[in-house]
Specification:
With 241 residues, this protein is of the alpha+beta class. The chain has helices spanning 85-101, 109-122, 128-142, 191-199, 211-229; strands at residues 2-15, 21-27, 31-37, 56-63, 70-79, 164-167, 172-174, 187-189. It has two domains: 2-79, Nucleic acid-binding proteins (OB fold (Dihydrolipoamide Acetyltransferase, E2P), Beta Barrel); 85-238, Recombination protein O, C-terminal domain (de novo design (two linked rop proteins)). The protein has a five-stranded mixed beta barrel with strand order 1-2-3-5-4. A three-stranded antiparallel sheet has the order 7-6-8. The model has no long low-confidence stretch (mean pLDDT 92).
């Protein structure tokens, strides 16, 4: 057994016994870890409320080589997530994606930094729907699902100026010819939506699209994530456009 230190974001906690909890943590150094926090349910726990959902904390854990739960020995609060109800739902959605769609002990430092930055921004002046779309874009790209938006995802041909479509099955936008093929995942997409999706991948992602385009983006992104996961995320109905 070895002792490890890490910076962690609390994604999920469940009660294990009268005094202990099992927690899922997303760490910068170790990736996703599942830990047993002995005494984590006590009112005067040594973890000092560091295991509240979406809390950023510094942790010390003992790794279990057998593949069982790691043992959390220390957790101290770095900062807590704060925000209104839309920001809270968005934060829970971030936690859900990280908890359910990443592998144990597979670190992604860039994705960890993006998640922490997103949670900070959700409580700030950046519009919640735009910030969440940016996180989803980085999340999908980091896990190998970056959508193809500069050419047809199916054949590599040029995209038309109008009558665009987006296909999660193909992995991006489609040309007119490829739109004729059977594809139950295909959805129509406006040129403005395509341009906005492209901006989400760049440093200009803070440019806020028109309300109608934000709604279209939200529907397409939700459809894309649902198709890739095989089921809709639980928090998806609570996200604004």
């Amino acid at each position: 057994m070895s002792t490890e230190k890490a910076t962690a974001l609390v994604l999920r906690c469940t009660d294990w016994s009268e005094s202990s909890r099992i927690c899922t943590l997303w760490t910068r150094e170790l990736g996703k870890v599942r830990v047993l926090a002995k005494g984590g349910r006590r009112l005067k726990s040594s973890f000092d409320n560091a295991l509240d959902l979406l809390t950023l904390c510094g942790i010390v854990l003992i790794r279990k080589p057998s593949g069982g739960l790691d043992l959390l020995t220390e957790a101290s609060v770095v900062r807590r997530f704060k925000g209104d109800l839309p920001a809270l739902y968005a934060g829970y959605y971030v936690a859900e994606l990280l908890a359910d769609w990443t592998e144990d002990h597979d670190p992604h430092p860039a994705l960890f930094d993006e998640a922490v930055s997103a949670l900070d921004d959700l409580a700030g002046e950046v519009p919640v729907p735009v910030r969440l779309l940016r996180f989803e874009t980085v999340f999908l790209a980091e896990l190998g699902y970056k959508p193809v938006l500069d050419a047809c995802a199916a054949c590599g041909g040029s995209l038309p100026a109008s009558h665009l479509a987006f296909s999660p099955e193909a992995g991006g936008a489609l040309c007119l010819a490829c739109q004729r093929a059977p594809d139950g995942s295909r959805r129509p997409m406006s040129r403005e939506c395509l341009e906005s999706m492209r901006r989400l991948m760049t440093d200009d992602w803070r440019q806020v699209p028109a309300p109608a385009i934000r709604v279209e983006l939200r529907h397409l992104m939700g459809h894309h994530v649902t198709h890739l996961r095989g089921r809709p995320p639980r928090l998806l109905p609570y996200l604004g456009g």
